[in-house]
Structure formats: C-alpha cells, structure tokens
Specification:
heterodimer; A: four-stranded antiparallel beta sheet; four-stranded antiparallel beta sheet; 29 strands; B: 211 residues; three-stranded antiparallel beta sheet; 9 helices; 47% helix; 18% strand; kinase (chain B); transferase (chain B); kinase activity (chain B)
C-alpha cells in the first residue's frame, strides 16, 4: 500500500493503478459486518434492489408484498454502528401501491427524482420520488418480469420491458407511447438489459433458452442469438442448437465496460460471452446452483482488476473471478434464498436481499490500525481519538476502525 | 491421466476418461478446457457424447481408438468401410456428430455404408438423419459406469452426516458388481460436482451435495 502511494506520488504509476489495486483488495476481503445494518421494513422476501448511479447514496428495494422502500446508505452519524434508515416507502397503505409482488425497481439514471417499478400485477409505474405518486402507469397483458432503463442513453428514453409475452415492449418515457416491439423469442422474456457501452444495444434472455441481442434502431429482428457451442452444431442434440443454456435463461448482466455479457440459466451454468460477436468465451465457472423460476439479479464489480461476479447461489452469494472462473469465496449469512445483489462501486460494498426479508451489507474488512499513530493520518487510522485534528477527521468514510 | 480405466473388458475397449474427471485433478477448469481443445485440434484426442448426461464427454486418445476399433473389426465384412471412415472422417474433423448431409456429400458415404457403420458401433443414432460418433461396445462401459457412480454416491450418502474423508473412501472396497477402481469413480463424482470437496486437516472431505 505504501509502495503504491509512493509510486503514485513520484509519478511512476498511473493513479488508476492504486485505485484498482485497493478496490480489488477490498473486494477480496468482503465480510458481513456486525456494525452495518439495513432497516428491516419488508414483511416478505425482497426481490430486487437498486443503488442510484449518481451519488451512490440511496437504495431502492422492491419486495414480494408490493412494497417499495428507499434507504439512505450514507453514514453521517460519526459512529461506527450504523443502520441504513428507510427514508420513505410505498407501503400497503399508499393508494397507488402495486397489488402483487414487485419484480424490478430501478432509479432513473440521471437523478433520484424518479424511479420505475414493475410488478406481477401486470403494470409498470413511473414514480415521482418527492410525492410518491405514479406519474405514469403502463399496463401489460402478462406478468412483468423485468424492465431496464439504459444508463447511458442520450438520444432515447426507452424502457425495455420483459413480460410473460414473448414480445419485448419498448416504452418511451418522454411520450408515454409503447409502439415499439421486438419479436423473436418463443417463450416468456425473463430478463432484459441495455448495454452500458452502446445506448442502442439491448440483450434479452428468455425461458426458451435463448439470449438475443438487439439493436433497437433496426427494423428487422435481432442482431444475433448467443449460441453456447459457438456454431459447433455437432456438440448438442439437435433441439439444443443455437441456445445459450440447456434450460431457462434467467439472469443477464453486462460487465462494467460493456464488452462482456454474463448469463445464468437453470442448467446450473453461468457463461461469459463476448458482447460484440456473441462468442462464448468458454470460461468454466463450474456448477452455479440456480433454481429460480423468475429472474435472478446478479452483479459484476466495477473498478477492480480482475473483476468479480457476485451470484446468489441458494442461501449464499458466490464470488467468482470473471475471466478465470475460479470460485473466490462464498458469502454466507442469509437464512433463506438470496434473490438479488447489488454492488456499490464507490465503497466496494455488496448489498444482497433475499426471502428472509433481510438486506445484508457485505463490507470490506479494514486493515488493522498501525501501532504508532501519526497525528494527521486520515486514511484508516484508529478513530475515536480525541486528539485528532478535526480538520483531518474522517467525516465521510462510513466504516472507521 | 489414463492410469485408471481398467482393462477388464477383455481389452476390447480403449481407455476412456471423462472430461469432468480432469476437473477433479486440476483445479482450473477453464485451463483444462483450453488444453483439451488444443489436443483435439491437433487430432490426438477424440471427444464423445456418452449419452447419459448432456455434459458427460468421454475422451480417448485417437491412436488407441483406431487400434481398438480395427481390432474389433477383424474378420467382419464391414471392416473396409470402417477403415475408410476412420481414415477420412476421424482424422480430419473434430466433430462429435454427423448429419446425413455431411456424410453423403462431404465424405461420399452411401446409405448402405452408413448402415454398416451403425451396425459396427462407430456411429450411434442421434435423431432422424444425424449420428453421434461413438465407441463400439461401449454399452457395457456406460452400464457399469452408472452403476459404479450410484454405488459410490450411495456410500457417501449413507455415512454419518453424508460426508466421508476421501482417503477413507479410497480404502473401502467396492462390492463385486462395481467393476471400476475406486479412484476412477471418486474423480468422477468430484468433477461432476455431485459431492463437494472440502479441505480439512486430515485430507479432503467429500460431502454429498443435495440438489
């Protein structure tokens, strides 16, 4: 650590290197922290969580009872023991609450004034955070499994919606219209994701074992379908040709730079694909237990090298190295199945929610403090020292030692 | 790695290893996959779909395969066809299965010749108009293999807490019906992730995975 700091100071190393090395070290030491808690509001399982991209301060969670809760993740109390409080919630008493379970929630990518939630009551609602009233309601014919807003879109404000219907609907946020449909799948669409690299590229995963990549500007069908055997027709039985998995595909996640796409399926496999060519990179993660009938929300770390994938696996979260496929660790702590997990890139923390109605925060374990204290060390110094100069006091870090 | 397959089939079968057994020996699965693909491209290794599991692939050295198949064909009328098949098809392409199109056009085999190949066991029907590459007389192998796998898994399941130390399991003798050596079957269940291998101070522990 000191070596990296001196190298950066002297200009020998790129400043990004220190950041990446430290992020990687922190991710590798993720553990359940007894001091960090998230308020327990949900009475039923938690299906989905989303952390806003702008500040990383507010987290949305959607539960199986239709309740949507917003939490404040920042610790301004100055104390080490901290419970992330729920700022507000759309509970059962709210007039506009969803009737059945909320499957996906997502913040509007540009500010926290708006968020979108979709649920099994066949609607998707766009909420105003201030008043907690829906500004727009989209109705569909089947249960809505997943929706996604592009995090980088400038030229369009489309929400891709995957429902029980094999057609993917694109709803326009600006005009409220939904005339654009993407046809191609043969069974329900379990997951949709926009690419974080190109604002017009969309990937969709369906229960017919196929994953298709679309360019929404094209009038004709999908760009390509992911094939697990890379076109080698001889490897599979003839029905399994051109499929991404040997079962339902229920999880999709792009890597942070958008160059790779990860998919998980009910055949207990996770595959890594090159998102530009659709080629299976054949990284073997082994058996990734997957019994979910709905979408599985998993996430990839950002800013580390090598990147890590956090996949909910039964009642624990498995951490794999992205490109080599080795299992780094299993994070155990939930009492029941884990349904979703989300990575906080600024603090390298992982939040996971599951059927036991808990959201657990996995926080990197800090290094033990140095024996001798320097009077003005701000990073990772032993806190609680009244002699520390208040100008150097760490007022923004939420886990001090 | 071909230390284990036993020659108890009266030497009529070449030495077969399953791909996931190699995962149990080396820990980096991606590396194993890459190396296997390299060997297959070079034509030294052949991969087969064994049929009882979509992911179970059997591996045989190409030279072994050829000698055994030809030895099995001694004195039969189908010998010439099989020889031709081995030379043309097996040496040149690394596919696991062949469709009717390919056989007729690319390799110029007639229908009767294809029937002969199926009869001799080199091709197995996959569905109407396509065939898997296969090992003649491998039915016995598959039968004993599945039996052996069930027996070893049963042993692990029946133990207290459904877990056994690997060293202790190797010591236990299989009953007469199970023809494979213990080590072969242990590599199979570990590689296929039917049991979880947990490192302990007295060696690896195998715990049955409930799925």
């Amino acid at each position: 650590m000191l070596g990296y700091l001196t190298a950066r100071q002297a200009g020998l190393d790129d400043p990004l290197r220190l950041r990446r090395a430290e992020s990687t070290r922190r991710v590798q030491s993720l553990k359940l922290n007894p001091d960090r808690d998230v308020d327990r509001i949900h009475g039923n399982g938690i299906n989905t969580i989303d952390i806003e991209a702008i500040e990383g301060r507010y987290m949305l969670s959607g539960g199986a009872d239709g309740v949507v809760v917003i939490y404040d993740l920042e610790n301004y109390s100055g104390k080490q023991q901290y419970t992330c409080k729920a700022v507000c919630s759309i509970g059962r008493s709210n007039r506009h609450v969803h009737k059945f379970s909320v499957e996906t929630v997502q913040w509007y990518p540009y500010d926290t004034g708006m968020f979108v939630s979709s649920s099994f009551d066949k609607t998707m609602k766009v909420w105003d955070t201030e008043t907690l009233k829906p500004a727009e309601v989209f109705e569909f014919e089947g249960n809505v499994y997943n929706h996604h807003l592009s995090p980088i879109a400038r030229k369009h404000s489309l929400i891709a919606v995957g429902t029980k219907n094999p057609k993917i609907q694109l709803c326009d946020l600006k005009s409220g219209s939904r005339i654009h449909i993407l046809q191609g799948h043969r069974a329900e669409v379990l997951s949709v994701r926009w690419s974080p690299r190109y604002e017009h590229i969309l990937a969709s995963a369906s229960a017919d074992s196929k994953v298709k990549v679309w360019d929404v500007r094209r009038a004709s069908g999908s760009l390509f379908t992911l094939d697990q055997h890379n076109g080698d027709k001889s490897k599979a039985s003839s029905e399994a040709v051109n499929t991404a998995h040997n079962g339902r595909v229920n999880g999709l996640c792009f890597s942070g730079d958008g160059l790779h796409l990860l998919t998980t399926g009910t055949d207990d496999r996770m595959r890594l694909w090159n998102s530009a060519t659709g080629e299976n990179t054949l990284v073997n993660y082994g058996k990734v237990c997957n019994e979910s009938r709905k979408r599985l929300q998993f996430t990839v770390s950002r800013g580390c090298s090598p990147e890590f994938v956090f996949v909910p696996c039964g009642s624990s979260v498995a951490v794999y190295a992205l490109h080599t496929g080795e299992l780094v660790t299993m994070l155990r702590g939930h009492y029941n199945n884990v349904d979703c997990c989300e990575f906080h890139p600024d603090y390298q923390e992982l939040y996971s929610g599951g059927k036991d109605c808990n959201i657990l925060a996995w926080v990197p374990v800090l290094r033990a403090p140095d024996v001798e204290e320097e009077p003005d060390s701000t990073k990772k110094s032993a806190a609680g020292q009244p002699s520390v100069n208040p100008a150097f006091e760490d007022a923004w870090s939420s886990d001090e030692d | 790695m071909t230390l284990f397959p036993r020659k108890l089939f009266n030497d009529s079968l070449p030495l077969i290893v399953l791909k996931h057994q190699l995962y149990s020996v080396h820990h980096d699965k991606t590396l194993v996959d890459k190396e296997l693909n390299k060997l297959r491209e070079q034509g030294e290794l052949l991969m087969f779909q064994l049929g009882f599991d979509t992911e179970a692939f059997g591996l045989i050295f190409a030279s072994d395969y050829k000698t055994k198949v030809l030895a099995g064909e001694e004195g039969r009328e189908t010998r010439a066809t099989v020889e031709r098949f081995l030379e043309k098809v097996v040496s040149s392409c690394t596919d696991l299965s062949f469709s009717k199109d390919k056989m007729l056009r690319q390799f110029l085999f007639t229908d009767t010749e294809i029937t002969q190949l199926v009869k001799s066991g080199v091709l197995t029907v996959r569905d109407a108009g396509s065939w898997w590459l296969s090992i003649p007389n491998s039915g016995k192998f598959t039968k004993y293999f599945i039996q052996g796998r069930k027996a070893v898994l049963g042993m692990v399941k029946k133990s207290k807490y459904s877990e056994v130390l690997k060293a202790e399991l190797e010591e236990r003798r299989t009953n007469v019906q199970v023809k494979f050596p213990m080590k072969y079957l242990i590599h199979d269940i570990v590689g296929a992730e039917l049991v979880e291998s947990i490192p302990t101070t007295s060696g690896p522990l195998l715990r049955f995975v409930d799925s």
